[in-house]
Design brief:
Elements (H helix, E strand, L loop, with lengths): L13 E6 L5 E7 L4 E4 L2 E9 L27 E8 L15 E9 L2 E5 L3 E4 L4 E5 L3 E4 L6 E9 L5
Antiparallel strand pairs: 1-2, 3-4, 4-5, 5-11, 6-9, 6-11, 7-8, 7-10
């Protein structure tokens, strides 16, 4: 349960499978990722990323070992993470922003308000969003924590 001192409540189990030198698949990691970033009051847990599309396989290392604490100015490849946005007095203050990416987002828990330049849309568990590089922010107007599952795919702006 969220508290005033620790508003985050969500844990994520990540199972990472790879192929060994012998060509046999196995589980390299199984547990809660440690790659966490708190940004503007939201908690992001990086589950995986690739630097290019298509990605290179087989994978030899856990890419989350080098830390999420860096957000690129230009996204390339993909990013896969959870975003946890507390509510109430701990609600994050996220400024309006854009990124050169296509974002696939699913609400896993709670309720979140997507704010664009022209309107607001409330998203609830089971709702999904495809966001295409547009100006936006997020508001959590409830007292409950909102948890989003996010895949970010780098894109090139053509205009």
């Amino acid at each position: 349960m969220a508290t005033e001192t620790d508003p985050f409540v969500h844990t994520t189990r990540r199972v990472l499978t790879v192929e060994g030198e012998d060509g046999k698949s196995f589980v390299m990691e199984d547990g809660e990722p440690e790659d966490v970033l708190i940004l503007n009051g939201a908690r992001m847990v990086r589950l995986w990323q690739t630097d290019d599309v298509p990605a290179s396989i087989p994978v030899q290392d856990d890419v989350t070992d080098d830390g999420l604490g860096r957000l690129p100015k230009k996204f390339g490849g993909t990013r896969f993470y959870t975003a946890e946005l507390p509510g109430g007095a701990n609600a994050p203050q996220i400024p309006m922003h854009t990124s050169d990416s296509v974002d696939y987002i699913a609400v896993m828990r709670g309720e979140i308000v997507l704010v664009t330049d022209k309107e607001e849309v409330t998203l609830r568990p089971g709702d999904t969003l495809v966001q295409t590089g547009n100006n936006h922010t997020w508001l959590n107007r409830t007292d409950e924590v909102a948890v989003l599952l996010v895949v970010v795919v780098g894109a090139e702006r053509t205009s």
